[in-house]
Specification:
Elements (H helix, E strand, L loop, with lengths): L1 H27 L28 H5 L7 E8 L2 E12 L4 E6 L3 E5 L3 E6 L10 E7 L3 H12 L3 E10 L3 E11 L5 E13 L2 E10 L6 H9 L3 E2 L17 E3 L2 E3 L5 E3 L2 E4 L3 E8 L2 E15 L5 E6 L5 E6 L6 E5 L7 H4 L6 E3 L2
């Protein structure tokens, strides 16, 4: 009997330590901070109402465009790691966020955004972050998630503060109900108040991935901000970022190959040029007549050359870093007007 009691005590202690580790993740998952966040107020009975944070447009946009890519350094398992992020701005759901595009595959539909581990089957993922919008207020949605998750899990509930979204309701589902042991699959829910309801971000990860994927999710969530829901997948497209290159190649006198053109986009022009000592040197430009975001969060650009040729660049359905070239504006003629050599791939 004494051995059984000791075993149960040890098991409960392990559960407590693991839960405590998860509670600390969101505080560690912050970039460029020098102060530690306050310990969250945990309450297993109820969650008090949280008012939507008031933010200015300048605070929310912080200068990043949808699709913009950049690097940052995070701390993962005690080591610094350089991570490549892409900025997502979704006006349909009403949020913007940076995500680690080398670790996660992005899947979007009208009702949610999912960021799925590249190692998972995207149709049946284990490690993923999903973001959705609700028209009900945060407290009502918290009741819904509590009722649903409590059928399977013992819950921890309280409040957390995300760097850009502010205070939110936090629900952790990690221990199987009535078992005193960790579940194989864990869920952590963040319910963020908004003027038109709330945004909900749910982390899903296996117990073995709590330190890895759990930490990566928290870095991403600390960049999430609520924006107005526009009814479109993204707000009006400003421009396509980065430097691109044509598939067609040219040759130096010594036989060295290089892209026929490097390409950059502004709000109103497509710039064609060359690279010299790392600098982009424009050669000529074509006028952008129409620029829009597609339903799959890609780009469609209709342009006109100086000689009157009308053409379209459109993000490839299979690779967001490729812009397919069609020498027409008429989508019905795309199959026969596709020009592979004039298509672009993202250079950097």
């Amino acid at each position: 009997m004494r051995c059984i009691v000791k075993h149960n005590i040890a098991k409960k202690a392990l559960v407590f330590v693991f839960v405590l580790m998860l509670m600390l993740l969101v505080g560690c998952g912050r970039r460029n901070t020098t102060t530690m966040p306050a310990e969250p107020a945990v309450n297993n009975e109820s969650v008090s109402m949280i008012e939507p944070a008031e933010s200015s447009e300048a605070d929310i946009l912080i200068g990043k465009q949808n699709g913009e890519r950049f690097e940052d350094v995070i701390i993962l398992e005690g080591m610094e790691e350089t991570v490549r992020y892409e900025h997502v701005r979704n006006g349909m759901i009403g949020f913007e966020m940076d995500y680690d595009y080398e670790s996660f595959v992005r899947r979007s539909d009208a009702n949610r955004e999912c960021f799925i581990s590249i190692y998972d089957n995207a149709d049946k993922p284990e490690n993923y972050l999903e973001v959705t919008a609700y028209t009900e207020n945060a407290d009502a949605v918290a009741v819904f998630f509590t009722d649903t998750l409590s059928q399977t899990y013992e819950l921890l509930k309280g409040t957390r503060t995300l760097d850009r979204a502010g205070d939110c309701i936090w629900i952790e589902a990690s221990e199987l109900k009535g078992s005193n042991r960790m579940a194989d699959q864990l869920q952590v829910v963040y319910i963020i108040p908004a003027s038109d309801g709330c945004r909900v971000a749910v982390e899903h990860f296996s117990v073995e991935s709590a330190e890895g994927f759990g930490r990566r999710f928290n870095y991403m969530l600390n960049t999430l901000a609520v924006i107005d829901r526009t009814g479109n997948p993204t707000d009006t497209a400003r421009s396509i970022t980065g430097t691109w290159q044509t598939a067609s190649m040219a040759y130096e006198a010594d036989g060295t190959m290089y892209p026929e053109y490097y390409v950059r986009f502004t709000d109103s022009e497509i710039l064609y040029g060359h690279m010299k000592n790392g600098d982009f040197i424009p050669d000529h430009s074509d006028k952008i007549i129409h620029l829009e975001m597609t339903a799959s969060d890609g780009f469609k650009v209709q342009a006109e050359a100086a000689n009157g040729v009308q053409y379209t660049y459109q993000t490839s359905a299979s690779d967001r870093d490729i812009l397919e070239y069609y020498e027409t504006w008429n989508e019905g003629s795309f199959p026969e007007m596709y020009r592979g050599g004039a298509s672009l791939s993202r250079s950097y």
